[in-house]
Design a protein that fits this description.
Blueprint lengths: L3 E6 L4 E6 L40 E4 L4 E4 L2 E2 H7 L2 H10 L5 H12 L6 H8 L7 H12 L12 H27 L12 H10 L10 H13 L7 H10 L5 H13 L6 H12 L5 H9 L18 H17 L4 H14 L1 H5 L7 H10 L7 H21 L31 H7 L1
Antiparallel strand pairs: 1-2, 3-4, 4-5
Helix pairs in contact: 1-8, 2-17, 3-6, 4-6, 5-6, 5-10, 6-7, 6-17, 7-8, 8-13, 9-10, 9-17, 10-17, 11-16, 13-16
The structure holds acetyl coenzyme *A (ACO).
Length: about 450
């Protein structure tokens, strides 16, 4: 049996044979399907990429039906137990786990690039005291590119690598400073004696003490959260990173765009939304009534559902276990009981079962962040820190992909046909009136 698809165009009666590669047909193969020679050719229409692969990638594998997530072939469950964030970042970026020497060098390079130019500090002091930390993060990452003009040489592998190290190293500093700015506290410089997650906590919370030493269980929990959030194949922000990167702009600008995509409540802003939702529910006894409201279309159950997972998100399982280790140190988060009750009811309810809506990574992560003393507005920033490794891995893969071209979708034009300009005093209804009428 040939690996092809036979298409019959009922408009013309013509038949076409289209090759099937890796379970996909190339959308461009449809262009030959025409009624007349002058036609543009058939297009595929897939507004949210529901069934369109935009890349061939060797980074992350997800089987959403059974709940599998692997980075470069390694199951997320193993990495969460045995790896560190920086080792996982190396794996995502370069394809293999590092040797001992490679890991030591990578850790050293990242550690020694955690400082940012003093101009960054001046820039950050210009934000209003209550600026959202994610707004600051997006802007400062973009601004960082102005300090490294050579970053525009994206076809030079050495230049690329230097920016990758810089970005991974500097995002925790920017993130922590956005928090300090909101608090009106002095910005804390990185401490090169500390590991990646520990240094981040130090920049967040250090006050007058000469050395900040958080509880090792909390450091490990944050490290696990960083590993779980490091990549997730072609999600909204990775797609933004690749699309922006396809214009060959510098990675700081592309990453700022990716971070902006992550900011949205349907993506990285969901854990913040989960906590607001739990606080709004307020008590376990209000859970059934809240679930009914969601079912009747009054909002969504935040932290539930996923475009790809139609099963329990494997990251949510690990996070639930991590939460227990955190609560042993910090005491139980009172919102946990509401979350557990919501999950129990939703997993039994026909509405959620039939739509295959399960808890996603964001359902429990916010509870841990809150227990670690991290404010809600910081949640998307906490997601952006580790996802930087994933965005950069996706960007690097795209840059060297011989099939990469500037991302530029087609459209189906549904607007007015050609018409003549009408002078202003002859127009009856204004555009705004027409919009209001809809
Ligand atoms: N609560 C209630 N109903 C939901 C939810 C939810 N969280 N998610 C989906 N549904 C329903 C929809 O109303 C729809 O029902 P219908 O068929 O009766 O119209 C059906 O399930 C399918 O939903 P879609 O919106 O088509 O699913 P899609 O794949 O486009 O959306 C998404 C995925 C955005 C994650 C969605 O499930 C959602 O909004 N969840 C809440 C936000 C959230 O937790 N986002 C984090 C995602 S994970 C991440 O970014 C790290």
């Amino acid at each position: 049996m040939p690996d092809t698809l036979t298409l019959t165009d009922n408009r013309t009666g013509l038949t076409y044979e289209v090759p099937i590669e890796d379970g996909a047909v190339r959308a461009n193969a449809l262009r030959q399907v025409k009624v007349e020679e002058a036609d543009f050719g058939l297009m595929s229409y897939d507004p949210a990429f529901l069934n369109t692969a935009s890349v061939r990638s060797a980074i992350t594998f997800i089987d959403g039906d059974v709940g599998i997530l692997r980075y470069r072939g390694y199951p997320i469950e193993q990495l969460a137990v045995d790896s560190t964030y920086l080792e996982t970042a190396f794996l995502l970026l370069f394809g293999e786990l590092p040797t001992k020497d490679e890991l030591a060098r990578f850790e050293h390079e990242v550690t020694y690039h955690t400082f940012v130019h003093e101009n960054v500090k001046t820039l950050m002091t210009g934000f209003r005291y209550d600026a959202h930390p994610m707004g600051m993060f997006v802007s400062v990452v973009a601004a960082l590119g102005t300090l490294y003009p050579e970053a525009s040489k994206v076809d030079d592998p050495d230049v690329r690598l230097a920016q990758v190290i810089r970005l991974i190293a500097k995002v925790p500093t920017i993130a922590a400073w956005s928090y300090r700015h909101n608090k009106g506290l002095p910005y804390v410089y990185p401490d090169n004696d500390l590991g990646f997650a520990e240094n981040f906590l130090s920049m967040m919370f250090k006050m007058a003490e000469s050395k900040y030493s958080p509880d090792p269980a909390l450091v490990r929990a944050l490290e696990v959260l960083f590993i779980l959030h490091a990549d997730h194949e072609q999600n909204c922000s990775a797609n933004a990173m690749r699309a922006i990167g396809s214009s060959k702009v510098d990675p700081y600008s592309a990453l700022a765009g990716a971070a902006a995509a992550l900011y949205g409540p349907l993506h990285g802003g969901a854990n913040e939304a989960v906590l607001r939702m739990l606080a709004q529910i307020g008590d376990v006894k209000h859970v059934p009534e809240f679930v009914e409201r969601v079912k009747s279309g009054e909002g969504r159950l935040m932290g539930f559902g996923h475009r790809v997972y139609k099963n329990y998100d494997p990251r949510a399982k690990i996070i639930k276990e991590t939460a227990d280790s955190v609560f042993e140190v910090t005491g139980r988060n009172p919102l946990l009981d509401i979350a557990l009750e919501l999950e129990k009811i939703a997993l039994e309810d026909e509405y959620f079962v039939s739509r295959k809506l399960y808890p996603n990574v964001d359902f429990y992560s916010g509870l841990i962040y809150q227990a670690l003393g991290l404010p809600t507005a910081m949640f998307p920033v906490l997601f952006a820190i580790p996802r930087t490794a994933g965005w950069l891995a996706q960007w690097l893969e795209g840059i060297v992909d011989p099939e990469q071209k500037i991302a530029r979708p087609r459209q189906i034009y549904i607007g007015a046909a050609e018409r003549n300009y009408v002078p202003v005093d002859q127009r009856t209804a204004g555009a705004r009136d027409l919009v209001a009428a809809h």
